[in-house]
Design brief:
Number of strands: 0
Distance between the termini: 29 Å
Structural class: mainly alpha
Oligomer: single chain
Number of domains: 1
């Protein structure tokens, strides 16, 4: 997931406007990374203890208290 993709997901989760945000057409490449850097979860899944939380659920859980305080004018 790109940084832009994360912003889009957060905007959807918290119903934030996105009109003023656009992806960078020429992003800086940064450090070289493999195309697919996912790690295999086969062994932990095989043990029955794997857990996969979609980004939108995890970010809502992590940021919801801050967003609610922001909306209430407490920040």
């Amino acid at each position: 997931m790109t940084k832009y993709g994360m912003v889009v997901s957060m905007a959807k989760v918290f119903n934030f406007p996105m009109e003023h945000i656009t992806p960078d057409p020429n992003p800086v490449p940064g450090a070289p990374r493999p195309y697919d850097a996912r790690l295999s979860t086969d062994r932990i899944d095989g043990l029955g203890i794997g857990r996969h939380t979609p980004f939108s659920e995890a970010i809502k859980s992590a940021l919801e208290p801050w967003v609610e305080s922001f909306r209430a004018g407490q920040l």
